[in-house]
């Protein structure tokens, strides 16, 4: 197994000059061999949003929104306006004639919503005195509207005019939303998923109504994502993972992810081996339409939504909770954690026959509605000869605090944000050296040589 380490901090715009430490004879499959530390925030950075191929925005608990150039590391704009922490941020792209423009929408604990122009840094629109803080944002490009989720679900047009809203909900409010077919939205509210439908009435007036409430989870829903046009998924605090039909909202598959149970018959020892709730909690889900990754406690679990089976797993992928994951084009995946690391994984066949190749830490897949048993579902050994493991191929060490999330710009690099108030752009040293050489040659040409 190959592992490499990157570290060190410099001022904004500087590049770590120390050579990267490689352990092993092979060269790494990943090329994050140079880092650039970006400074500008003075509190936890929680959100990264890609604006275009070269720019991204960062935001967090200091209420600032900063716009950056990923290639140069330059801080382009500083968007000030919120007095408290940012609670949600998204990009909003709309087309007018032949022109396409991307704006930023931010929500804050100060109970305001803002629309920003990342070209000028101007706050174009703002809504204040909301009834509650907005926890999530969803853009419905086809309908040219966007949705905010707090204690109410509110639908807005691109001019920040409220089109319609739902009734007041549970005190916990809406924590996540995804778009569904037929002008529907799935919203996570505590243990329930509420299906809303948007309807266009005579005179082009929009209305929103609750049409179904799915109460199959036994604990708070922490993750909600679209899988493809026909499926979406949800994950709960106690390790329940449900795949839903996106059209008729029925359960396509249900799994209760549990740690491996003790083999002893002694009840006291079994109780001692019982997992803590945080070890089973599904913090985040991601999917490429065929595979889905669940960040469960400090572990990673990869599922095929086609065969509805476990493909690969790593019970302990990090030293603490995994906060964000991403599937890579080469079949691997990336994860970041409260332990401050970003790790790159490769799916490999299990080498030893003695290693678990059964349901192991998982419950069985069942079809239809959950029976909502008080205890964990009955375990059953499944024949899974194709089950694989996740092997560590890269470990990016640079942050001193929990890494909240990351966003990839392909060959231009990867950007991470953290509780240490920093952002780091991870890049390919070879590519960056080549670009610096080209820039130097161009400068020499402009100046007529040395």
From TrEMBL:
It comes from the Eukaryota. InterPro entries: WD40/YVTN_repeat-like_dom_sf, WD40_PAC1, WD40_repeat_CS, WD40_repeat_dom_sf, WD40_rpt, WDR41. Keywords: Repeat, WD repeat. SMART domains: WD40. One of its GO terms (biological process) is regulation of autophagy. One of its GO terms (cellular component) is lysosomal membrane. It comes from Oncorhynchus tshawytscha. The lineage of its organism: Eukaryota, Metazoa, Chordata, Craniata, Vertebrata. WD repeats lie at residues 38-78, 79-126, 315-348. The gene is WDR41. The keyword Repeat applies. PROSITE patterns: WD_REPEATS_1, WD_REPEATS_2. Pfam families: Beta-prop_WDR41. This is WD repeat domain 41.
């Amino acid at each position: 197994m190959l592992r490499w380490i990157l570290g060190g901090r410099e001022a904004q715009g500087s590049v770590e000059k120390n050579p990267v430490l490689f352990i092993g004879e092979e060269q790494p499959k990943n090329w994050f061999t140079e880092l650039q530390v970006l400074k500008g925030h003075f509190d936890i950075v929680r959100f990264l949003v890609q604006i275009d191929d070269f720019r991204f925005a960062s935001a967090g608990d200091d209420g600032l929104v900063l716009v950056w150039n990923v290639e140069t590391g330059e801080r382009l704009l500083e968007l000030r306006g919120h007095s408290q922490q940012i609670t949600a941020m998204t990009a909003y792209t709309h087309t007018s004639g032949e022109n396409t423009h991307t704006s930023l929408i931010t929500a804050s604990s100060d109970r305001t919503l803002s629309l920003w122009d990342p070209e000028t840094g101007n706050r174009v629109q703002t809504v204040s005195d909301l009834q509650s803080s907005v926890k999530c944002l969803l853009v419905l490009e086809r309908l040219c509207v966007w949705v905010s989720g707090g204690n109410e679900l509110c639908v807005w047009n691109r001019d920040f005019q409220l089109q319609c809203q739902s009734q007041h909900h549970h005190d916990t409010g809406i924590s996540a939303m995804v778009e569904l077919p037929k002008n529907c939205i799935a919203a996570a509210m505590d243990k329930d998923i509420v299906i809303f439908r948007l309807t266009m009435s005579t005179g082009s007036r929009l209305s929103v109504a609750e049409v179904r409430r799915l109460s199959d989870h036994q604990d708070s829903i922490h993750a909600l994502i679209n899988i493809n046009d026909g499926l979406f998924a949800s994950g709960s605090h106690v390790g329940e993972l449900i795949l839903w039909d996106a059209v008729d909202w029925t359960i396509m598959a249900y799994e209760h992810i549990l740690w491996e149970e003790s083999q002893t018959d002694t009840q006291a020892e079994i109780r001692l081996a019982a997992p803590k709730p945080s070890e089973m909690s599904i913090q985040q889900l991601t999917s490429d339409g065929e595979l889905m990754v669940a960040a469960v406690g400090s572990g990673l679990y990869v599922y095929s939504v086609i065969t509805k089976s476990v493909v690969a797993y790593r019970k302990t992928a990090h030293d603490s909770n995994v906060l964000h994951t991403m599937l890579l084009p080469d079949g691997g995946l990336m994860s970041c954690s409260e332990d401050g690391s970003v790790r790159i994984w490769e799916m490999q066949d299990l080498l030893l026959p003695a290693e678990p190749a059964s349901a192991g830490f998982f419950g069985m897949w069942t079809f239809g509605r959950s029976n909502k048993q008080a205890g964990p579902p009955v375990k059953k050994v499944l024949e899974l000869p194709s089950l694989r493991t996740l092997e560590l191929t890269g470990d990016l060490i640079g942050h001193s605090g929990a890494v909240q999330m990351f966003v990839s710009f392909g060959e231009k690099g990867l950007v991470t944000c953290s509780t240490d108030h920093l952002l780091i752009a991870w890049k390919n040293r070879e590519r960056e050296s080549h670009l610096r050489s080209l820039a130097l040659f161009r400068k020499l040409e402009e100046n007529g040589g040395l």
